[in-house]
Amino acid sequence: MSRSIGGMRSFSTAASSLLADATAASQSIRQPSSFQVFRDVPQLRQLRRQLLQKDRTVGFVPTMGALHEGHLSLIREAARENTDIFVSIYVNPTQFGVTEDLSSYPRTWDSDVAKLEELNKELAQTEATAGPETGKGRITAIFAPTSKVMYPGLPPSSEIEGHGSFVTITPLSSKLEGGSRPVFFRGVATVCMKLFNATTPDRVYFGQKDVQQTVIIKRMVQDFLVGTEVRIVDTAREEDGLAMSSRNVYLGARRRAVGLTVYRSLKAAADAYQSGKTSRADILGAAHGEAQRVISEQQVLSPSERSLFQVDYISLADPDTLDELEIVNPTKGGVLSTAFKMAPLEETKPNEDCGLGDGQVAVRLIDNLILQPRA
Amino acid sequence: MSRSIGGMRSFSTAASSLLADATAASQSIRQPSSFQVFRDVPQLRQLRRQLLQKDRTVGFVPTMGALHEGHLSLIREAARENTDIFVSIYVNPTQFGVTEDLSSYPRTWDSDVAKLEELNKELAQTEATAGPETGKGRITAIFAPTSKVMYPGLPPSSEIEGHGSFVTITPLSSKLEGGSRPVFFRGVATVCMKLFNATTPDRVYFGQKDVQQTVIIKRMVQDFLVGTEVRIVDTAREEDGLAMSSRNVYLGARRRAVGLTVYRSLKAAADAYQSGKTSRADILGAAHGEAQRVISEQQVLSPSERSLFQVDYISLADPDTLDELEIVNPTKGGVLSTAFKMAPLEETKPNEDCGLGDGQVAVRLIDNLILQPRA
To answer: What InterPro entries is this protein classified in (chains A, B) (predicted)?
Structure first.
């Protein structure tokens, strides 16, 4: 899914939150004007079949709501390649661990729908001004299922040894982000298989931002002979390079500025590769050097001025297997990826912009850059 | 899959047998006349799409080849409900455990194709004599993929902790047959998800004979929102009641006669239920009594006259969860199922019909009866 939660944790099981999830979603349904909303599968299948028989094409963008510019860029890309776009909005319980707070995940139905309606207007405008080849597609359907629709059998388990019906992709799922979140990619693969079966899209769209997710979904589509094409869309970034993320709203100005180190560290490593380096030591050394420089700078500042963070990992990995690389094969390239944990602010100043949660929410930032094969 | 192997066991890993599998299949491909054979997915998808756009319907019958009357009855049923029938012939490595001999599984391509061609003639004949409503469908496509097509990623593992891309349905997969074959239903669910994705059928057909498989496939289709209907077809039986099975050819006359006890034991239990009994003790007591009676009869015969067997299990279970039942709820019914292990013949007589393998192959026979809800 195009967004994952971090930082906020409290005890809650996925199963016990299902009811709250379904209730919250059904209360807040508002019918939009330029697309249909489907809460169950049969009617959606009927629409899909009609489109197929009319030789129309469907691009599918799965989300957990809380839509931001990154999601919209996926939809714009889908509009270039398909006549119809299906967007799903579903907060999937099985990708949350038992210690992660599913119930506090933001539900922003009305603003999500408003953004999608706005985007449909923009797509019509683009077509009117730039011609039908540039933006022919429109959002046709929102699939916003209840958890009873998505998990009709047993309540799904969030424990790694728990029972249920799952898609497992190993060992990919246990690397990188999967190291600290053992059920996460099982949940992602499982819900995506369900969503793909419900929507049977010609193409599915995922953001490069969640690189491990892109590798796992491509593997799943290949291994399970899923009849769809996987499109990966470049990470949407702020002007200075910070990757867009739903979590950025928790940063505030001070942590926002220091958090850019995530991108700068990766960029330093990518520059090393571009300049001809191929060894892990040289490439990751550049990233760690940049991160360490900023950590040292911050440590000497006062608690009301600084923003401390920890590097969770910086990885240099094979693009297909995500195995760590000692040497990059320049004909194949690699994936640089990282996770930083931005600590809560120690002291805040009067009127300081501390972001949602007043700077007290730890924020895990992830980002990645692809090392393209060199000619 | 509509057939599973038993009895013959020797050491072989699924992965090491893949090459042999693919080679054997490609050597023996003979092009039939009344349907197309597909060895890869893209062309099959193209045909499927054309059929969809012409509003034709596809019934899918997955098999591991070695076709017998049971498979043909599935296809006849598919012909009543669909215009086109896809049959897959693929011996799936991931449902064989590391100690089960995948490489010795029978490959009978030419005779399988001949049977399917014969059946297409019969279906045309049926329509000509009985009208289009009774047998309008024809076998249109055989999907006979290589293992490279079915498992394009890592070589699939046959170890329970092994790596790969799998569909897991728990706890259903570990009950009954899954107790002694821990990877079996993971392999079945995984290959069926792939086959369903490759063929996207309107309906899929499975035999009641493999009852646990039917329960798991129904659960998989429900839980993963697979857009197909699951049809379960009554077990094809010989006149005296013995369930048809590819393994029956290993029995020979003597073990064939005694092997009927499998069916008779279940029938005794079903009769007890029909006469009003609902307790496990009463219902299964009838089955065990019948089996024990025959065991005692056989034990007093000489080694050249008798056929010994062991009861692996006799189960009385809930039809959805396969949990063992102490009491049958008459409004819900239950599933009676059993596995017997027919020992090799101890001594044979001159000119005795001992079946394939001269009576030396241990044969595991399974069967089941559904206890229907009582009015």
So the answer is: Pantoate_ligase (IPR003721), Pantoate_ligase_C (IPR042176), Rossmann-like_a/b/a_fold (IPR014729)
